[in-house]
Structures are given as structure tokens and as C-alpha cells.
Write the C-alpha cells for this entry.
Amino acid sequence: MRNIKTRSEYSIINVRILILIYSLLCVLTFLFSRSFFIDTLQRGDVPDNLHLIVFFTIPVVLIIVLGVSVFNLLMDFLYHRPGSKFNVRLLAYFIVIVVFSVTPITLMTSTALNETVKFWHSIDSSTSTRAANSFVADTYSLHLERFENILRQSDFSGTSHHSDISSVQVFRFSDNSWTETSFTGDEDFRLPSPPSAESGFITRVLPRDNGTIRFLQRISQNTVRIISYNLGADFDRGKSVLDNQAERFETVNELRKNMRPLLIYYYAVFFLPTLLMTAIIAISFTRRITRPIVELTEATQRVAEGDFSFQILSRRNDELGILIKSFNSMIQDLEKSRAALVKSEKISVWQNMAQQLAHEIKNPLTPIKLSAERVLRRWQNNPEQIGEIIESSMLAIIQETEGLSTLLNEFRTLSKPMEPSNSTTSIREPVEETINVYSSSHPKVKYDIDHVQTDIQVKIDKHRLSQILANLVINAIDSMDGEGTIEIRSDIVKKREVCYCRISIKDTGKGINTAENQLLFTPYFTTKESGTGLGLPIVERIVTDHGGVIWFDSAIGIGTTFYIDMPLA
């Protein structure tokens, strides 16, 4: 009993590995998509070429894997390999389901993004930014005018000051450094040293001058006074917010320009690999599903051809696994039934052969007995005239005895085990020898052996091949009543990766009717008056025991052609 293990064909990656890769792809997609959206929204630019190469590596590899899988699937379909149509049908169903599932999501996503883009386009960010900056500038100008009025109206020599003045600080320059001599006001506005030595408004520097405007008064050559005006804590904070929003509006403008390539990039990098991986897994799953069905189909065909010497091995525990186990049990039961049937048929065949042999032996015994009784009666009644009948009677006994001997030899040849020969024979020489034997005894028969090649050798000894040819040639001569044409040809054919020599023997006889076709290779069946019915069964036995096959085509009134395929040496 030969075991056949189920295995995957044309699979590039195992399904479990595909699922693992798919899971990693989902994780990478999540991580990179987060980075992708953050960078894109911060800058509004399309990723550079290096990022494009890195990101597009995954879809390119998946496209190659999917292309190879689809190519193998198409080759299976074109060459009509078992299960290919079922694979294609399952994959088509899956694609339809995926398309129906993905299309609404894609349309909704595209619509949402288009509406978002339209909404962005409806926002006049430039005008809003200009208006906000103008408001900030006007507010600053008002504060600056008010500060100037305060400076003109106050001398800042005392300790009380206007409410908008946050601090007053006096510095004296001595020993090459500035030293603070007095300070009044809020400690948050205190300076470690004068930021400038020139009289007038001090240029604002953040965060040092956050929420204030400073003015420097020179009291004397070595003394200065720094007056800080309070703008309010929200002034610079609001200005910073406006600047940030202006930058964001610039990013939005860049996104408007690059929205289409960004969408293409998004779908190609994050959406397409998911679809590709899904398709690859679908193809692998269809093969995994259809493989046991294909194996069962092939096994059924082999059982139909008569091969019961195998079992399908499967580790599946599902319904298909149960079906495979049931199929294996069925094969075992069929093998047992076939063995019993073959045994019964053999017994029946041998019984029929024994009856036929007994009948064939009984026929010549009657003339032998009659000849012997005739000689005996003449010897008893008229011994002096026994010479007149003794010669004819003895010749009849000898002839019938030789017929019995031939019959027994053919029966022994048919019944005894035949060991295939390991020798090789060129087919041309036995053909010529056979033709030479019968050409003289049947001069009205023409022989055409021009198409018998001289360089072909088959795995059979010369004696057995000559025996096959002699039986088929004499049958052809008898079919033509000793007058016609016999054509013998040889060709090389290939069947199931094995090369054979095909020998054909064609006659122009009366042909074989349909009723005799099924009985032609049956022992003791003959259409000739003097035949034993063992010639063709012996030929079939020799051919099949040497790994060959024999069959024939026949047409009434046209002739018969016997074909023999013998393995090449």
C-alpha cells in the first residue's frame, strides 16, 4: 500500500508566514501612518524620494509575490490542471466580495477628503492673518503713544509712578561696570544691567522684554534710568498664537497644493499593500481548500483505472479530513473485494479452461480410438489384409497425437509463469525472418516492411518477439485466405514519460465483426476450423509480461491492424 501525503503545489509562502507578515504590515502601517500624518500636517510637503523608496518597497515586493501567484494560477487554468477552475472560481468570488466591501469605504473616504479640501478652500486665512496682525500693530501703536505721553508728563524721580509703569530702574557706571542704584516696581521686570547705553526706546527682545516696552533716559554721563511700560501679560502670548496660526495657515495652503499626490501616496503606501496581502492570502487559502478536493479527484480517477495501491495522508481534523479517512477505508474495502473477485474470476477462468482443454483433448481421441479399433478388427477378422489399413490408421493416430502435443504445449505456455526477459532485440531482424518463413508457403501474399526501422531495440528476447510476430502474421494470412497485403511498421511513441516502440501489423482481410471483438483474446476462442484458440492469448500474455500492451482496430471488408507497444531498450 503506497501512501500519498497531501502537499501544496506552487505555494510561494506558507499561509502562516503570510498571516505573520500581514500582522507586521498592519503594525508598520499604523506606526508609519502616524509619523506620516504628523510630518505632513506640520510641513504640508510630499515625502522626499528616500521615504518614497522605503515606503514603496513593501507594495513592490507584494506585487511581485502576487504576480507570481497569479501567473501560476493562470498556468494551472490554461493547462487544465486539476482544481484550477475551482481555484479561479473561489478567487473570483473572493475578489467580488472584497470589491463590494472596499468600494463604499473608498468612496466615503474620498468624499470626506474632498469636502474637507473644499472647506479649507472656503477659509480666507490670508485676510484673517492680515487683519489680526494689523490689530496687533494698532494695539502696539496705542500703547507706544500712551507710553510717550507718560514719559512727557512724569520725571520719575519719586517712588510713585503711573499705574501703567511696571518698574523704574537706575544704573551708575563705575569701575568699568554698571551698578544698580535704585529700583521701584514689579520684580518680574528687573534687569541685571542696562540693555543699551543710548537714550530712547529699547528694542524689544523676547523673552527678556515679555509684556513690556522699555525706555532709557540718560540722567547724567554715568547714570541712566530704565522705565518699563506694562503691555500686559497676554500681549506677547496672543502675538505668538497669531504667528503660530499664520504658520498653520501656510501649511494648509501647502496641503491644498499637494492634496492629490498626498492622497495617491496614502492609498499606494497604506491601502494598496493591505489589498495585495489580502489577495495573496486569498490565493493561498483557495489552494489550501481545493488541494484535498483535487487529491480526492485524482484518487478517484486512479481507482476508476484499477489502482487501489495507495492511500491519501492528511492531518486535517475537519470535514475534509473525515472524508479522506472514509475514502481510504473505501479503497481498502474495494481492494479486498477486488482481490476476492479476482480470485473468483481466476477460479472460473481455470474451470472454463479445464473444460475447454478437456473438450479439445476429447476431439482427437475419437479418431485415435476409431483408427485403433479398425486395425484391431482387421487383425482379428482378416489378418492377411491388415497392411491395407495399418498405414492410414497409424498416420491418423500420429497426426492426432501431434495435435494433442501442440495443444498441451500451448496450454503450458499460457498457464505457467513467464519471467520477463532482460535482453534486448532489434525489431528489424525478427520481422525479416518471419516474412521469409511464410513468403514461400504463401506466394500470393505481399509484404511491406519498408517502414520497419533498423535502429530500434525493445526489451524482449528474440525468440519471444518472433513468436508474437509469427502468430499475428499467420492470423493475417488466414484472414486474407492466403491472398492480400501485410504491412508492418514501427514508430516511437511516448506515454507518461516512458518511450515505447509501436509495431503495427495491418492486413487486407475480411475483418473482425463486433461480436468477436471482446472474445478475441479469450483462451480457446477461435474463428478458424483448425485453430486451438490459444495463439492470441499467448501473444497477449507475452506482451503484457514484458511491460507492453496490445490492441487492434478492424473494419469488415477492409482489414485488421494489430498494435503492439513494447518498452524501448
